Amino acid sequence: MNNVYENGALQELVYEALEKVIDPELGIDIVNLGLVYNVVITEDAVCKIEMTLTSMGCPLIDVIDADINREVKKITEIKDVEIELVWYPAWTPEKMSRYAKIALGIRA
C-alpha cells in the first residue's frame, strides 16, 4: 500500500472528521475512546481506517460505519473510505484519552 499522505495534513483532517463520530452508547467520539488504531490515505485517495470496537458484536457498528463514511467523505480530497475492524490489540479503557476518561468518570 502506498502511504503518500500517511503523516500529512490530510491525515490530520481525517482524524478531525473522526472526532465528530460519536459512539451512541458512550457519547464520546471514537478517536478519544481509542477505537481508531490507524489512518492511511493511499495515492488514489482512498482513506483506510483500521479500528476496533469496545466489544465484539457491537450492535451499533452500522451506525458508526455510516457516521464515519459521512464525516470522512466531506473531505473533498477523499474519494472512498474503507474501514477494517480489528480485534488485536484488544480495546481496553487504557486506550481512552484523558478527556474520555474524565467524561466517563474513570479515574486515570
Write the layout of secondary structure elements.
Layout: H1 9-18, E1 36-41, E2 46-51, H2 61-72, E3 80-85, H3 98-103
Parallel strand pairs: 2-3
Antiparallel strand pairs: 1-2
Q: Helical region count?
A: 3
The secondary-structure class comes to alpha+beta
Given this structure, which CATH class is correct? Answer: Alpha Beta
CATH topology: GMP Synthetase, Chain A, domain 3
Main sheet characteristics? 3 strands, mixed
Overall 3D geometry?
A: globular
Q: How does CATH name the architecture? A: 2-Layer Sandwich
Description:
It is a single chain. By secondary structure, the chain is of the alpha+beta class. It has a single domain, classed as GMP Synthetase, Chain A, domain 3 (2-Layer Sandwich). Helices cover 26% and strands 17% of the residues. It contains three helices and three strands, in the order H-E-E-H-E-H. The protein has a three-stranded mixed sheet, with helices on one face. Strand 1 and strand 2 form a beta hairpin. The chain is globular, with a radius of gyration of 14 Å. The termini are far apart. It comes from Fundicoccus culcitae. InterPro entries: Fe-S_Maturation_MIP18, FSCA_dom_sf, MIP18-like. Residues 14-84 form the MIP18 family-like domain. This is Metal-sulfur cluster assembly factor.
